[in-house]
Amino acid sequence: MKPSSLILPVATAVFAAVLSFSVLPVPAAAQSQQGGPTRSSGAKVGETAPAFTLKDASGKEHSLADYKGKIVVLEWMNEGCPVCRGVMEDGLVAKMVADSKKVDADVVFLFINSTAKDADRPEKSAKYLEKHKINGTALIDGEGTAGHLFGAKTTPHCFVIDAKGTLAYAGAFDNEKEGDANVNYVVSAVTAIKAGKTPSPAKTQSYGCGIKYKK
Amino acid sequence: MRLALFGSALRVAIGTAVATAAARPLFASGAPRTAAESGAGGRVTMRVDRTWRDADGPAVLIELTPQPGWHLSWSNPGEVGQPPRVQLTLPPTWKQGATRFGTPKVIREGAATAFGFDGTCSLLVSVEPAVTGIESPPTLPPLVTVDASWLVCQEKCERGSALEIKAMDVGKAQPMDAAVEARFPAPMPSGSTLRLMGSDGTGGPFEGVMEFTVPGVDAQGLLLLDLPSAVAPSSTGPFGATTSDGGASFKVSATIRPADIEIDAGQRPDPAASGLRIHGVVLRAGNRALAVDFNVPMSALRTNPSIGVPVTPSRPVDLAAPPQEPTP
Hints:
The structure holds two protein chains of two kinds. By secondary structure, chain A is of the alpha+beta class. Chain A has one domain: 3-Layer(aba) Sandwich (Glutaredoxin), CATH 3.40.30. Chain A has seven helices and nine strands; from the N terminus they run H-H-E-E-E-H-H-E-H-E-H-E-E-E-H-E. Chain A has helices at about 5-25, 30, 80-90, 90-105, 120-130, 145-150, 185-195, and strands at about 55, 60-65, 70-75, 110-115, 135-140, 155, 155-160, 165-170, 210. In chain A, helix 4 packs parallel to helix 7. The longest helix of chain A has 20 residues, at about 5-25. Chain A is globular. Chain B folds into two domains: about 1-175, Immunoglobulin-like (Sandwich), CATH 2.60.40; about 195-320, Immunoglobulin-like (Sandwich), CATH 2.60.40. Chain B has helices at about 10-15, 180, 260-265, 300-305; strands spanning about 45-55, 55-65, 70-80, 85-90, 95-100, 105-110, 110-115, 120-130, 145-155, 155-165, 175, 195-200, 205-215, 220-225, 230-235, 240, 240-245, 245-255, 275-285, 285-295, 315-320. Chains A and B meet through helix 1, helix 2, helix 3 and strand 9 of A and strand 6, strand 7, strand 10, helix 2 and strand 16 of B.
């Protein structure tokens, strides 16, 4: 290849790279990594799960402490997100609940909606769960308090808390990122906890729509 | 792979047709498409370019271009998003290989950090000879069906998909044009290294630091990683650089669970991925991005004194990169 033929593509690439860096400042996450690793924000696997109190559609308050002694699963939801709708409307969430309850009938499922625009419509999420035969309680987190405490980023984003109140799993709904959505990480975690083992994996990267928190 | 399943039934039905379709009405199961998967095709335009030959062999170039203000995800979407999926239906003597993504950007989505494309997302989907014993009928044109699906986001996210059938003789791919090649990260420079430094509890997961050293990168360099689920980094990144005479160093603290590596390896058909695949890209201001690609063999992980044995501090393990030509 003649050197002259490289000028235009290389110049184009350089321009694109410069433009990319000029319009996108280095995010804080990168700055915090300068010179060494740091820990991400939000609840930490292996540590006590943050306490929270949220209301359901009827106005009843639910605190994490209410469920001490039981395995608690939190799944962030937003029926406006196509990824969340995909797993809920295809029956995958109902199956996750059913499979988990086969392992431990007392597992508690709390579906949290931290979408700011849904704060004044608490009944919306509850009706959605009911419509899709999902056995769990919908909680409204319009201020994003619980979402920020746990570091929930996406819908879906799942957290499994053991009977002692320790966060045992945080991350994706399933292994879709690996190419096959054939392992539900929540069911795996519940199974491991019930067997007295540490979930593996205990932490994965969630995927889905970003949660639209209150600004 | 939920995103890629939408059109399987239709692909079979039109496997011998010569046509271009813009949408698929059925799931693989034949059930009507639900609201979750419908619509949004107009947010992204798909263009099937042609086959190009790179160092790994022929590959089909596919371009996905979102509307202004919308973005698509890289193979690791970052804190939010989901990468596009592409499934090829090829003549019987060929099979689909790995997908290579173009160079991504760091995109802020609210308070979250996403890795993706607010312009054209270029995808090179490699095609490999398949040992089937079936030859393509010489009278038929060599058709390739490209079935793509994606999540495209701005303030909200929408799902979309497209299907296109194109006559392409994948075995006669031309060498890759420099302008096309420039959209992708350059090969990892020689001298790049990955060191695992850390210790663990007996029989437990590796807890430590992955230190990447990449020549030709300055302090502005940013490392984006796409890791298997066996590796849990302490943050999504991007990871900033510290520089020395040998180039830039990126330190990523992570937990690695050997048991999960076995699972990952078992799920991947690629023999080269039978160990721990560490893949990423280094973004360089004003210069072409560099690929980061290590394949840590399972044997190295099993014998690594820093994994599986409580050694503190452990001996760093040098895992040299496969030889590559330096970036021009």
